[in-house]
Design brief:
One of its GO terms (molecular function) is structural molecule activity. With about 240 residues, the chain is an all-alpha fold. The chain folds into 2 domains: about 130 residues, Tetratricopeptide repeat domain (Serine Threonine Protein Phosphatase 5, Tetratricopeptide repeat); about 55 residues, no CATH class. The protein is about 75% helix and about 0% strand. It contains 14 helices and no strands. Helix 5 runs antiparallel to helix 6. The longest helix has 17 residues.
């Protein structure tokens, strides 16, 4: 029998963009040391998503484990142009260190930062090997940005083989459907709707549905969804 996943709700809320709900569900007992690091990394990534960058930077000290240090670098990267270059420089230095360079969270943060830099090949250097569902999902995003839906589809197939019902698999499927367009738009809309009904409606899912509606010419509905997304974003 598989061990219970104590961090499922935290992780799932984070994937769906329900950042405050994720933080609220983070007080979990009976965690292993590795789970504690994962929990703290996810919570601080939620604070980054909520724009509380200085809080993250001040909370994570230099003795924190590698995943948390990587998250701090992400906060520094987003905190302004003056910090961006030093964050990228530190990131490259850590990635070159054999002792920590292959850490999945560090590779994920590297992929995220280089994706924002529009340096897709550099991002793929660290993400393409996969290893976690988040890395596979990030690969899907990178390949879509590169207009390589064929490669994105390969990554999606890998995710479906691992866990077809995983929230990230469903989201990646919707992203790819949106990129492909045509009849796939309706399928993407159904995925966003299903996730909203199964878990909760978030600004991320509402935005997804709004984009689908715009593709289908339903602009009034798209506007309604976007207003709702804005209202939710202020409380997320």
């Amino acid at each position: 029998m598989a061990a219970p996943d104590h961090l499922f709700n935290l992780r799932n809320n984070f994937y769906l963009g329900a950042y405050q709900a994720a933080i609220n569900s983070s007080d979990v007992s009976n965690l292993s040391p590795d789970d504690v690091v994962e929990r703290d990394s996810l919570v601080h990534r939620c604070y980054i998503a909520l724009g509380q960058l200085q809080f993250v930077i001040s909370e994570i000290d230099q003795n924190a484990p590698t995943p948390l240090q990587a998250v701090k670098l992400l906060a520094l990267y987003f905190s302004g142009a003056s910090q961006k270059e030093s964050a990228i420089s530190s990131l490259k230095e850590w990635l070159a260190d054999p002792a920590i360079g292959n850490n999945p969270t560090l590779r994920l943060i590297a992929g995220t930062i280089f994706l924002h830099e529009q340096d897709f090949n550099e991002a793929l250097k660290y993400t393409n090997a996969g290893g976690t569902m988040e890395l596979h999902a990030l690969n899907v995003q990178i390949f879509i940005k590169m207009h390589r839906s064929d490669f994105a589809e390969r990554q999606l197939r890998m995710m479906q083989q691992i866990d077809e019902d995983h929230t990230l698999t469903q989201l990646a499927n919707a992203w790819l459907d949106l990129a492909v367009g045509g009849s796939k738009i309706q399928e993407a809309h159904l995925i966003f709707q299903d996730l909203s009904e199964r878990y909760q409606s978030t600004s991320l899912l509402l935005n997804g549905k709004a984009v689908c509606c715009m593709h289908m010419g339903n602009f009034d509905e798209a506007e309604t969804l976007l207003v709702e997304a804005l209202n939710k974003a202020s409380f997320s």
